[in-house]
Sequence to fold (535 residues):
Amino acid sequence: MEYLNAVEAELKSVSPGMEGKLWSRTAGNKFDTIGDDAASWILQVPDCWGWTASKGIPIGAEKPGIKKLLARLRHNLAQASTTVDITGFGPPDMIGSPAGPFPDGDFLDAMFDGIREAVGRREEGDPRLIVRFMTGVVGVDRTADPWVFRDALIKRFGTLARAIDLRVCSMTTRGVSSYNHTKFVIVDGQSVIHGGINWMTNYYIEEGPLFSRGFGDTAPVTDLDIALRGPAALSAGKFLDMLWEWARTHAGWVKSGWIKNRKQYPAWIAVEKPSPPAEGWSLYVEDEEDDSEPYAPGDLQVISVGSLGYGILDRDKDSTYERPYAEREDQAASYLNNETNLDSSFMTVNPDANAIRALVAHAKTTIVMSQQDINGFAGLPLMHALFDVRLLDVLARKMMDGVKVRIVISNPGSPDYSNISSVDVAYKSLYQRVRLRTTYDAEAHRLLRHHLQLAPLRVSNEQTWQGGYKYRLHSKVVCVDDTAFYVGSRNVYPDTTQDHGFIIQNAAAAALLNEHFLDKQWLYSKNAAICDWEW
Fold:
């Protein structure tokens, strides 16, 4: 398990006091497959590879990946016996916005159907099913009202609502730049679905109303989640307990306060009794007196690692970590902001970026990335750093060592789903870091030409979706040596949100990830490559 060992060593160095809370390495996991389909733990959307203009793509929820994902949501949630955790991120719900702050449309329908089935099996006297919804918002705006969402669900459940302890939270930990960005579905602390997929129907399934279109029907976003079962789900739950504990101690609880004082608190929580409990809100505390065997359905080792952004915890008090030297860190500065590259304290409570770098640094032959971007959002109001200096430095060193690097990113343009104006920006960023290690400009370009594949997404031989809409990519996948990989909600570009992901070393699983997603992605995207060592 050399890749996991390398990542774990980095995490112990950066965040020793966060082990068991923000990150952990567990054994006894398994890929959560259904039936005989060995790849059913891979939940990709829309899964319309190779579509043709003459046939088009299936409409709405009939897209093969969407149909599979919705069925899996219903299936997993229907198994719930004690707890359900669902998290997401959402923009303000207003004209011009194709989504709202909470899960919607077919995604919410699937979640509701699964929970309803689980509750419908309960017998009188059984404890209520605890269901938590948490959404991250860009500042607590007036549309992210947790009571409206909770009241609508309670009404929809009807008499079954009596068997549900429903808790809904909207939160932001720092202005417009730090908030929950995870997309979890965790059931009983035993199964977990997670990755890049937002629960926004208008980006993946439907067009959306006029002036607020996400083009999810005719130009759906390409994205990916994975499904796991075992202690890794419990680890993810413990991470969420940290977010909920912060929200519990910082939230407004009174419905009328939302209308009058919505900016007074960084979080708002809607529950049955509008008062903060003193304790007992953590769902995943392990009972030390329980001598029963822990749930361990398989033999898969998984590293779970999250990030707290800004505003929850300033630093891991047990850490002595200081960022390693990197030449010309200022190359990544945006409007004088370069905090994610300079702030060592931030890194100790956001170790997932270090974990991904450690995974990449251990590559011997290949590195494959499927990402929205490798460049941060440098414009207003975020003004993030342009790139992760140390990640691009690792990529530069690996290419100098002969490792082949492949990166597929989203397409700048309409409908926009990218941080940059041109794919050339990504190439320039890589070139800048390679150039620091070479003698001549030509030498840097030659190194990239011989070791880099860089392309915007294509999902077929058609250059765009019907209507001329560009392909959009939102997956967060890093795979090295066809052996170990990261999947989660953390982008590889600089960001300050709360995120989480899983790092797994399993060659058979990596082969399936390649076969069903990464290889198909490159089969078509290579036709649009701006750099390809196979030329």
DSSP finds 14 helices and 18 strands in the chain. The domain at 301-532 is CATH 3.30.870.10 (Endonuclease; Chain A). Residues 408 and 522 are 8 Å apart (CA to CA).
